[in-house]
Design goal:
Residues 137-143 and 401-405 have low confidence and may be disordered. The strands form 5 sheets. The protein has a 5-stranded antiparallel β-sheet, sandwiched between helices. The chain has a 5-stranded parallel β-sheet with strand order 7-10-13-6-14. Strands 8-9 form a two-stranded antiparallel sheet. The protein is an alpha/beta fold and 463 residues long. The longest helix has 19 residues, at 412-430. It has 20 helices and 16 strands.
Length: 463
């Protein structure tokens, strides 16, 4: 009698919880199903109890049902997005946490707790409709800061990246210029947006401009604006500096700007005053400047791509983003993050990854860095049938045989770096650790040599 009352109490407690609860035995037969779950699915409790999951929900399969997947693997699935049609044809969006039920060492079933997001999405859509009506639909769309990333998007367990985040947070407390260096795909704009969104300017505009995409002839008018009549077809138009007033202006690949124009940019940074092309009026702008480069500034100065005076003005905060190949231990957590992301976007249920896949990904050089890794995982999730990602799901490049002569080849960048390191060590030995003399032998500016010594962890020998 006591156990019967205890069972009734437990069922009453679970039935009163404001989240959907669905439990099945090891064969996929429903043994508990509360009222909230029934409302989600558009059925009666009696229609589900005692029946197999796939018999009641035909839109699911053994591969897409989180309950059946947990029974099969014995592993929990946390915060998994799921979209399905209920018995009434309504599209239901839920976030599910599904865990196995163990009795001793036996897996006897699974229980799922689901939070319904459908109403939240419907309310959001209704709110947008109301806002459109209030704004009379004819008005312009409301502007946003343009920055969507924050520190949570910088996923890492690597000490060098943790240091990047620390420097970025310090930079966010200031309005001083920031210079960021990192190879293509390392996440420079993600870092820039995080700095903006953490700063006192987060409610102001965030404007990003890749300088390499601007023709030299248009560079000045795009950044500083134009005055009507200053040239054929010219109209009164604000430039990016004016549009970014009170916020942040992010100039990517600044080293692609012509040197003459870099002088004009330096003048604006010094006095905060701009003048539109063809105009006589001056405008004082309050803009926080962040610049990024995919080549190291010392090398750009050496190649005469970057003025040294502009470098010294911008280099108040200098943040160097490490390439993915140097971020020890980050590939597994980034792979897990991207799998979850594309599970949601592509309505997939990939929860396992073959150890050979992870080993292959960790060996890869990742010349395109995190961006290349993300696109690789997006492709693999698209190609995966079922819940296990295997080598066959990776792009063709990863599956090609490594038995030919290519196994003896190293990426060009690695070979260059090894040769460079060897030459610097030889020059320092010849000069008995004299950096100035070594830089003369190598025909490098002293600053560039010092940067490369730091990069390769080379210490000058004591004389």
């Amino acid at each position: 009698m006591e156990s019967f009352e205890t069972k009734q109490m437990l069922e009453a407690i679970l039935g009163s919880i404001d989240e959907a609860i669905h439990a099945v035995n090891s064969e996929g037969i429903t043994i508990f199903y509360n009222k909230v779950a029934a409302i989600h699915d558009g059925v009666e409790i009696d229609e589900v109890l005692g029946k197999h999951v796939l018999d009641v929900f035909p839109s699911l399969t053994s591969q897409t049902s989180t309950l059946l997947k947990v029974i099969e693997t014995g592993k929990p699935i946390y915060q998994q997005s799921q979209t399905y049609k209920n018995s009434k044809g309504q599209l239901i969006d839920t976030v599910n946490t599904t865990i196995p039920i163990h009795v001793g060492e036996r897996n006897v079933g699974a229980v799922e707790i689901a939070k319904d997001l459908s109403k939240v999405k419907q309310l959001a859509e209704k709110l947008l409709e109301l806002q459109q009506k209030v704004n009379n639909k004819k008005t312009k769309p409301s502007s946003t800061s343009g920055a969507t990333y924050n520190w949570d998007d910088l996923i890492t367990n690597c000490d060098s990246m943790k240091n990047v985040k620390m420097l970025g947070k310090r930079a966010a407390e200031s309005s001083s210029p920031v210079m960021i260096y990192g190879e293509t795909g390392t996440g420079k704009e993600l870092l820039v947006q995080s700095i903006h969104n953490e700063s006192s300017r987060k409610n102001g505009p965030f404007i990003a401009q890749n300088c390499s995409s601007l023709p030299e002839s248009l560079l000045e008018s795009i950044l500083f604006g134009t005055k009507k009549g200053s040239f054929t077809g010219a109209v009164d138009r604000a430039g990016l500096f004016e549009l970014a007033h009170g916020g942040t202006l992010f100039l990517d690949e600044i080293h692609t700007m012509p040197l003459d124009f870099q002088t004009k940019l330096l003048r604006v940074l010094e006095d905060g005053v701009i003048r539109r092309v063809g105009g006589t009026e001056s405008y004082v702008v309050d803009v926080r400047i962040i610049v990024a480069m995919n080549e190291h500034p010392f090398e750009c100065i050496e190649k005469k791509l970057l003025r040294s005076d502009l470098y010294f003005r911008l280099n108040v905060f200098f943040i160097e983003l490490p390439p993915l190949r140097e971020r020890n231990g980050d590939i597994p957590i980034l792979v897990d993050h991207f799998i979850k992301k594309y599970n949601y976007l592509l309505n997939k249920l990939v929860i396992n990854i073959d150890d050979k896949v992870l080993a292959k990904l960790e060996k890869h050089h990742w010349q395109g860095n995190v961006r290349e890794l993300e696109h690789t995982i997006e492709y693999a999730v698209n190609m995966t049938d079922g819940d296990m990602m295997t080598l066959n799901d990776l792009p063709a490049f990863f599956k090609e045989s490594a038995t030919d002569e290519r196994i003896n080849l190293k990426p060009l960048r690695v070979t260059i770096e090894q040769t460079e390191k060897k030459l610097i060590q030889q020059a320092l030995r010849v000069t008995k650790g004299n950096v100035l003399k070594a830089s003369s032998i190598l025909e490098l500016p002293r600053q560039t040599l010092q940067y490369k010594m730091k990069k390769y962890n080379i210490k000058a020998e004591q004389t």
